[in-house]
Amino acid sequence: MTDHTHELDARGLNCPMPVIKTKKALAPLQSGDVLKVISTDPGSVPDMAALARRTGNEIIEQTESNGEYIFYFKKN
């Protein structure tokens, strides 16, 4: 498990809401902050990768367990 400074619970939300909420949650963070995002939408896997590419933020860890997809974004 990666240390994180902020957390977003996007469980139960369907595309595109996990990505929209993640983008909003990342906006006010400081460079170096880590946001943990928990999603239950399988579509969030490619969507979060695309978000990282578009925004320049880095997914430093990504896991899946029991239908939950967990992403750790490092704010650049």
One letter per element, helices H and strands E, the order comes to: EHEHEE
The CATH top-level class label: Alpha Beta
Q: How many distinct folded domains? A: 1
Major sheet: arrangement of strands: 1-2-4-3
Rg (CA only) = 11 Å
Number of helices: 2
Extended strand count:
4
Instruction: Indicate the CATH topology.
Output: Translation Initiation Factor IF3
Structure description:
By secondary structure, this protein is of the alpha+beta class. It has one domain: Translation Initiation Factor IF3 (2-Layer Sandwich), CATH 3.30.110. The protein is built from two helices and four strands. The chain has helices spanning 17-26, 44-55, and strands at 6-10, 34-39, 58-65, 68-74. A four-stranded mixed β-sheet has the order 1-2-4-3, covered by helices on one side. β3 (58-65) and β4 (68-74) form a beta hairpin. α1 (17-26) runs parallel beside α2. The longest helix is centred in the middle third of the chain and has 12 residues, at 44-55. 24% of the residues are buried.
Key descriptive features of the protein:
76 residues, alpha+beta, Translation Initiation Factor IF3, 34% strand
List the helices and strands and how they pair.
Layout (H helix, E strand, L loop, with lengths): L5 E5 L6 H10 L7 E6 L4 H12 L2 E8 L2 E7 L2
Parallel strand pairs: 1-2
Antiparallel strand pairs: 2-4, 3-4
Helix pairs in contact: 1-2
